[in-house]
Design goal:
Layout lengths: L6 E2 L4 E8 L2 E5 L15 E8 L3 H11 L3 H8 L6 E4 L4 E10 L6 E11 L2 E6 L6 H10 L8 H33 L5 H35 L12 H64 L11 H24 L4
Parallel strand pairs: 4-8
Antiparallel strand pairs: 1-2, 2-3, 2-4, 5-6, 6-7, 7-8
């Protein structure tokens, strides 16, 4: 086929594909030609639009007969992953999770999808979603292309769920690296644990918001009354649903693990603080002995050895001896 290129629509880039009776017939043809095929029951059309304008939405709604509420949802950002059913089509909203180029943070790339009897329309609000991988999945299973729109939607959902799986795996590796830093006593390690644990918790919350609704979304697609998932596609959708469950369970376990890491870090910091206070208190007790002796001998009253060298050396001996005894006692009890 060669490298895919993009077709300019009313706003930015658009990509198209046409399958006729399960065979890829055309690719990246002008958007205006869709009307020649969309009414043909033997054809399946894919249209992808990136960062559409209001005129793009108007064109898509008119071309495919989309419901106004679904078009409005597609135009709004930060939709919850969901599946809405309309008389002539389905609308679903989902997210791909991408690492931030500027750091380890995870960012969610939203994609809105319209599913008609013979067309799949994807609306993206950014260009970070790698659709080439979706196209590759379609090309790797040409024998399923005859299943129509259900085949195209499976490739997209399979990519999104695998993307979630990769994201949660990356977070798991980051948590393992964080656990290795927990018991290091360097200042840099302590700061790294505190900062990384907060970032991991934030990323897990973001990932959880994306992953959890996918379980209900994919399960709803498996309903027989939708007539979207044919018998040959049923095992593939069930496989996607199984991956969704695994990602959901993994995300929940990682959230508990991050909470445990944060609590363990607080416990370790508390133990370190107690150890420091114990040592400071022990040294204060040792230092208190010379202070007490010198204070006693500093009274303005005569005492044994007053005004003699012997009294001075006796007081010094008392201070050294008592300090040494305290030091050995504290050392034996691991207080110093």
């Amino acid at each position: 086929m060669g490298e895919p290129h993009h077709v300019e629509g009313a706003a930015g880039a658009a990509r198209t594909r046409l399958y006729r009776k399960g065979v890829l017939e055309r690719e990246d043809f002008p958007v205006q030609d869709i009307s020649d095929h969309v009414q043909d029951s033997g054809c399946t059309v894919w249209l992808d639009v990136c960062d559409p304008t209001s005129s793009d939405f108007a064109m898509i709604a008119e071309e495919f007969g989309l419901h106004q509420l679904a078009v409005e949802d597609a135009g709004q950002e930060h939709q919850r992953p969901k599946l809405d059913r309309y008389p002539t089509h389905l609308f679903l909203s989902a997210y791909a999770v991408c690492p931030d180029p500027g750091g380890g943070r995870l960012t969610a790339e939203e994609v809105s999808v319209f599913v008609t009897p013979n067309a799949l329309i994807t609306i993206r609000k950014g260009d970070r979603l790698d659709l080439d991988q979706v196209v590759s999945r379609w090309d790797d299973s040409p024998d399923l292309a005859k299943e129509g729109v259900g085949f195209l939607l499976h490739g997209l959902l399979d990519y999104l769920v695998d993307n979630h799986f990769s994201a949660v795996q990356e977070l798991d590796e980051r948590i393992e690296a964080l656990e290795d830093l927990l018991f290091q006593e360097s200042r840099d390690a302590i700061h790294a644990v505190q900062r990384s644990s907060f970032e991991l918790r934030r990323d897990l919350v973001r990932l959880r918001r994306v992953v959890l609704p996918m379980r209900e979304l994919v399960n709803s697609l498996l309903r027989r009354d939708l007539r979207l998932v044919t018998e040959p596609l049923l095992p593939y959708y069930q496989d996607v649903y199984d991956h969704v469950l695994r990602v959901t369970e993994w995300t929940e376990s990682l959230r508990d693990l991050v909470t445990s890491v944060m609590e363990t870090n607080l416990t370790i910091q508390g133990n370190r603080m107690n150890l420091i206070m114990k040592k400071v208190t022990s040294w204060a007790a040792v230092i208190a002995v010379p202070t007490a002796v010198t204070g006693f001998y500093g009274q303005n009253v005569p005492y044994p050895g007053f005004g003699t060298h012997a009294g001075f050396w006796v007081s010094c001996a008392i201070m050294v001896l008592l300090s040494l005894v305290l030091y050995l006692v504290f050392r034996r009890r691991d207080w110093i």
